[in-house]
Amino acid sequence: MFIRGTTLKKNAKSFIPFAAIATILLISYILQKVPKTYGSDDSLNVYQKFQAGQPIQYLVVGDSIGRGSGAENPNLTWFKQLENKMNDVNDIPLHGDYVVQSGSTAFEGLFKLSQRKKHDHKDLIFIVFGENDRKYMKVDDFIMTYEALIRKVKRLHPNAELFTITESSLKYEEFASAIELLSKHYRATNVDMRPIFQTSGYTEKQLTKDLIHPNGLGYQFYANAIYEQFLDNTKQEKPIASLPSKLHAGSKLDLSEVDNYEKMIGFRPRGDYFTSNEKGSLIEYNFKGSILGVKLLRSPDGGEVAVFIDGNEITSLNTWWPFARERYLFITNGLSPGSHTVRFEVTGRTMASDLTTLPYVRISSIITDDINHY
């Protein structure tokens, strides 16, 4: 009995180190398999996080290309291909957030960003505008709104790196040059997709869905270009984008709504909008500010509305769209200090050739800046 007990004690002693080693190995294995969380060290910038193998959180502020329109499926958008590349090659997860809208401009991006109630920490921010902006504004207006957007982004996320994307479809050189100029001033990384598409060996038709929006192959070039530039920035120990003094004196940061109208004829409240399909109907707002936009609904039965400021017709807006969507449209900039009146007047015209009823105009409010904010 004594001999047997001794043997058991010896076996127990030899088993303890083995069990401890096995436990350590098991814990190590489990820790390796636990997915990386998004509570990583936010004191590190995006390049330091990349080198440390930590997750990266990004934000896209952009238009239809910003949201990946044209891709054959969601996994072929440029940001999903970028996520997959980072994860597969570097074992680093990217988590995205999006302030995007098809057909939008930098003005709309600025307003939508200003309206967000929650701004979680972001390491990396992409700004994707230009193609639509050239349709609605002059280059000086674009510089003002694009710079205001950069400054808003950096105020909300001071430790974030900034990538500006010059879209492959942008044919207006002055708008591309404006993006490059502002990127250099703010030490942002500009990725110009135009020469990359031109030297890709593929035709524009092969790389796009409709000669504007890239397809999955086109977005692969976007993802690869961004990824390679990111690696080069990391290697060069690039400082993140900064917030120096303004280039454009009118680059305000604050946009707000004015929903109290001064005069209304023919328009009627319908849900969230003042609505009319009667030619000559009008609604007027008083405001103080140098920039003006409007919040309205674009829809398949949308019509045209003429815009008058202080009695002078300055433009007309088309509210037709193939599906209903609330939009925030730029009207003008550079108004003199002081009080102004804007009048929206229904013209009765529409772009919808198959519309059998009179087109509707639906207006919610105007958007302007605070003249006291400089």
UniProtKB/TrEMBL annotation:
Pfam families: Lipase_GDSL_2. The keyword Signal does not apply. Keywords: Hydrolase, Membrane, Transmembrane, Transmembrane helix. SUPFAM superfamilies: SGNH hydrolase. Residues 60-220 form the SGNH hydrolase-type esterase domain. One of its GO terms (molecular function) is hydrolase activity. The chain crosses the membrane at residues 12-31. This is SGNH/GDSL hydrolase family protein.
